[in-house]
Design goal:
The complex is a heterodimer of chains A (113) and B (112).
Chain A: E1 5-7, E2 10-13, E3 19-24, E4 31-38, E5 42-50, E6 53-57, E7 64-68, E8 74-78, E9 87-94, E10 103-104, E11 108-112
Parallel strand pairs in A: 2-11
Antiparallel strand pairs in A: 1-3, 3-8, 4-5, 4-9, 5-6, 7-8, 9-10, 9-11
Chain B: E1 3-5, E2 10-14, E3 19-21, E4 24-26, E5 31-38, E6 44-50, E7 56-58, E8 64-68, E9 73-78, E10 87-95, E11 101-102, E12 106-111
Parallel strand pairs in B: 2-12
Antiparallel strand pairs in B: 1-4, 3-9, 5-6, 5-10, 7-8, 8-9, 10-11, 10-12
The chains are: A mainly beta (113), B mainly beta (112).
């Protein structure tokens, strides 16, 4: 079974631009979560989707948004990029909403200049 | 608020020696506890979890962890460390279906 895939793997954007990151969960998994990883803040929860519905949301500004499609694929969008948004963005999928085991993708490394 | 602490930024151990990576948590309610490992330029890999039942949990790659409710701890252990175990280890906690909260991570360095 293929693992969680994230595209693109690397991205360089300029302040003020917007970006969309994509995540394809493991086949059959219906829950997708997003995390931001930075050296200073560590791993921080962004949001979680299950069956196209946002179930949980972390403490991030409204510039960060996401969605999940009927095939469980998920996208997250960051508008009006700031330098501090430079991070590794990780997506994780789980078979159901218990999320007892989350399977992580390799991440998208976003650099904002 | 739920939180998890990993008091050591780095743990150094010689190959063949036992290793322990510490984790303590603070939650209101029954915790679900997890350990993940991250290798350079990779995503996180699931190691083990405690949901309920036996306090000693065995996971991947020979790792185990013990849930201690009175000390609110969930330390990761391995009887004999390998150089290939060198990586970044994260403890995480959640209560019910709430969001997963990660610790700050502990870098494990195993020396040959």
């Amino acid at each position: 079974k293929a693992g969680v895939t994230q595209t693109p793997r690397y991205l360089i954007k300029t302040r003020g631009q917007q970006v969309t990151l994509s995540c394809s969960p493991i086949s059959g998994h219906r829950s997708v979560s997003w995390y931001q990883q930075t050296p200073g803040q560590g791993l921080q929860f962004l949001f979680e989707y299950f069956s196209e519905t946002q179930r949980n949301k972390g403490n991030f500004p409204g510039r960060f948004s996401g969605r999940q499609f009927s095939n469980s694929r998920s996208e997250m969008n960051v508008s009006t990029l700031e330098l501090g948004d430079s991070a590794l963005y990780l997506c994780a999928s789980s078979p159901d909403k218990t999320n007892y085991e989350q399977y992580f993708g390799p991440g998208t490394r976003l650099t904002v200049t | 608020a739920q939180s998890v602490a990993q008091p050591e930024d780095q743990v150094n151990v010689a190959e063949g020696n036992p290793l322990t990576v510490k984790c303590t948590y603070s939650v209101s309610g029954n915790p679900y506890l997890f350990w993940y490992v991250q290798y350079p330029n990779r995503g996180l890999q699931f190691l083990l979890k405690y949901i309920t039942g036996d306090n000693l949990v065995k996971g991947s790659y020979g790792f185990e962890a013990e849930f201690n409710k009175s000390q609110t701890s969930f330390h990761l252990k391995k009887p004999s460390a390998l150089v290939s175990d060198s990586a970044l280890y994260f403890c995480a906690v959640r209560v019910n279906t709430d969001k997963l909260i990660f610790g700050t991570g502990t870098r494990l360095q195993v020396f040959p």
